[in-house]
Amino acid sequence: MLISELKELIKNYKDEDLRLIISEMYKSMPKKLREEKDIDTLLQDTSAYMCIGKMEKARNKQININDMQQEVNLFLDYAYKQYYFAPNNVVHKKERPKWRFKVKVYIRDLQEVSVDREEGSMATELLYKLYEMLSYACGYYIFNTENPFRSVGIEQTSLLETVIARRLSCEINRDNIKSVINLVINNTVDRDTLYSSLICVLIMNLKSSDAKEIAVKECKQLIKELKESKKASSKKSWQVESSDYHRKEKINNLIEMVLRIDIELCEFDEAIQFLNKNYIERDPEITLYVLLELLWEYELKELWVREYDKALKNGVKPRKKLINIYEYIQENNSLPENFYIN
Questions:
Q1: Where does a domain end: 114, 138, 154?
Q2: Labelling 38: which of 77, 233, 281, 321 has CA 20 to 30 A away?
Q3: Which runs of consecutive H residues, i.e. helices, occur in 81-155?
Q4: From the CB of residue 156, how many other CB atoms can be counted at a distance below 10 Å?
Q5: Which residue from 200, 104, 111, 112 is spatially nearest to 154, judged by alpha carbons?
Q6: Dihedral of the CA atoms 47, 51, 57, 60 (nearest 10)?
Q7: Domain for residue 22, yes or no?
Q8: d(Cα 249, Cα 254) in Å, to the nearest integer?
Q9: Domain of 319, in residue numbers
Q10: How many domains does the chain have?
């Protein structure tokens, strides 16, 4: 059926019939097709959907990376100033919800710029900034959403993978590795993502032993700098407590990164010792739990039992969950498939 014929046909239907037809057509579409065609957006905001179509047609022309850099940087400036969220005279109210379509187009077009081309490094830098902005929006309201990655139809881990792969494809050196480590630990995660997932994405892109060893050194240096940055203060305030909390979180994430990399380098004892010595947690049982969960993930049964027994000798009292796992290992001589057994 031609579109012209379809338009004539639907003129004969009542509103109730059209609602039924649309519902049935929506249910018959595969989820992948709905996501690719952004059908949800079409239904939620038809004018905005048509706007993105016009933007895509305009982008079909050769991308001018310099013009795009100016456009993206202006968008980022407006976003951080909350022009797409709060009332202002810069971005019109009708235009504010369209921020997600702009970001979709930016990410798509920038990914099409090959890293091997002269403009590749500039495209990578802009993707880096867009990732930072979306991560920032996970913790602070700059758009009318609590899940900005989902709003633009991309997973946080997926965009991070793109940025890291592009950054490290140019050259494996201290500066590049340090920059992607900072990208992981200095940004907020969305409600669907764990820092562990971001850490694994980073490690997956460290293809050589040399790259992994550089990453371990950079992580340890960053931990040292974070510990030194803690300033003694006789005055307590929520700002100080918040700063201390985020510092602790960054340090512990870096420690997890070191452990995971050392395990991949088969430096098992060094990995365990480093975590036990540096992990910031008042309760040693929590540190033990974190360690044993990671050892379980890497299927290191002998080390799991060794560290459990060592903790017992040191007076640590494991929670019931860890006791159950230990008993399972003793009975089956293997780790359970599920870490959260009762």
A1: 154
A2: 77
A3: 99-111, 120-136, 148-151
A4: 24
A5: 104
A6: -150
A7: no
A8: 9
A9: 281-342
A10: 2
